[in-house]
Amino acid sequence: xxxxxIENLIxxxxxxxxxxxxxxxxxxxxxxxxxxxHLKQYQCIxxxxxxxxxxxxxxEIPLKTKKPTSVMWLSIAASVVVLLGxxxxxxxxxxxxxxxxxxxxxxxxxxxxQETEKALALVSEHLNTGIESVSYINEYExxxxxxxxx
Length: 150
Known about the structure:
By secondary structure, this protein is an all-alpha fold. The protein has helices spanning 2-15, 20-31, 43-54, 69-97, 109-147.
C-alpha cells in the first residue's frame, strides 16, 4: 500500500500537482535506505535536494565601489550634447513659428496676401522635398521590372 502511494506521489510530482507535505513525504522516503528497486532511479532526484541544502557558497564576491572617472565625464558630456540639441531644436522651431503674422484680409489685404504667399511657399518647399523622396520609388520600380520581367 505504501509503495502504491509513493508511485502515485511520483506521478503527481512530475505533473506538478503535489503539495509541500507530499513532496516532503517523497524526500523522506527517498532519503531512507529502504527504497524499492524499481524506484531507485528517482532517488538521485530527491537526494539532490537534501545535498543542495547543505551546500554553502564560501567564495568572496569582489565589489567595485569606484567608478572610472572617464566614464563619468563621458556621460556628463553626452548629457550636455543631448541638452544642447533639444534646446536648439526648440529654439529653431519657435523662430520659424514667429515668421507668420495673424491678420484678416479685412484689416490689411496686402499683408494677408504676403502671409498667404509665405505659407504657400513653405508648403511648396516641403511638398517638393517629399516628391524628391518619392522619386526613388520610380527608380526602384524600373529596376524591379528589368529584373523580374512579367
